[in-house]
Write a structure and sequence with these properties.
Layout (H helix, E strand, L loop, with lengths): L13 H9 L13 H5 L6 H13 L6
Protein name: DNA-binding protein
Pfam family, one: HHH_5
Organism: Dactylosporangium matsuzakiense
Length: about 60
């Protein structure tokens, strides 16, 4: 597994990326332990993006709450 992946966000689409940046999240590492429900309330964050983030975290042994 590439540790550098934790320092960036996966490709999830512009609206979801903007939503995360607006909430202060700029890396996958920062999302570990964040409540999925909280992310779901961000404007631009949809089920597909949440699935991609969940899978990316899982590959590194991490998860959303």
């Amino acid at each position: 597994m590439d540790e550098a992946e934790l320092d960036t966000l996966p490709k999830i689409g512009a609206p979801a990326t903007r939503a995360l940046h607006g909430a202060g999240y700029t890396s996958l590492r920062q999302l570990a332990g964040v409540a999925r429900a909280d992310l779901a309330t961000l404007h631009g964050m949809g089920p597909k993006a949440l699935g991609i983030l969940t899978e990316a975290l899982r590959r590194h042994g991490l998860s959303l709450r």
